[in-house]
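Data deposition worksheet. Section B asks for the primary sequence of the deposited chain exactly as it was used as input, without tags or linkers unless they were present during the calculation. Section C holds the resulting structure in token form. Section D is free text for depositor observations; keep each observation to a single sentence. Incomplete worksheets are returned to the depositor.
Section A, Depositor: J.P.
Section B:
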Amino acid sequence: MADGSSRFTSDRRTREEASWADQTDWEAGAPENVDVTADGLVGRPTLQAGVAPDSGVYSFEDDSVGSSPDGWEVRDAEVIDSTASNGSHSLRNHYSPNNDEYVARRTGLSATPTEVSWAYKETADSRGILYELFNENGDSIFELYTLNPQVGYESGFGHRELTPDPSPNYDEWRRFTVTIDWGRNEFDVLWEDLTGSTPDLTANGESFKTTSSEVSEVFIGGGRRDKTGGNANPTGYEWVDEVWG
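Section C:
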């Protein structure tokens, strides 16, 4: 709902036909932005541009400068305090020549988040950044990536590119936010230029790459896996912040 109010559409039962005291009355309708619980209707949180999901977001603020972030495995990456999408700390990484090698990853998870997000910043010399979730069997659920300056994702429908227009400036923070429907094995994508200079980009109803029940690993790498697009001879850094994982 545009106004954020709770809404439940019934199956046109009249007031006389439905007491709303019985569960069958609620099951007959269609909740749009509410969940039907034993205590009544509970509003679902709305996805708002400019607001990162709180649950599970790692911001690097509690990590020491020059260190590896707590709970993450990193390669050629370190915590810095010179730039951040929020706060003062972020993770700076240099592109690895092999996209199968992680820059940072977190394993051993058993989570079913309904929203995940990550913020990033790149320069004209950056190769790109890959953010990928793996399921309980070690298979890829979906991936999001930058192509400097284009962005894209891979779903069960294959690779799709999104082209910001106008092209955003370098050295500015941007963010991906993904809303996940585990029941349908689908996801929606929201891309934002956090300076507000480029309109948001969205994609809806994308399918998982493989049937999945939960997230077991978060993987951050150096650009799209098949290595197309982006800068062929990267010399710069990339930064990530407010990463779900």
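Section D:
Residues 57-244 form a domain with the Jelly Rolls fold (CATH 2.60.120.200).
The chain is about 0% helix and 40% strand.
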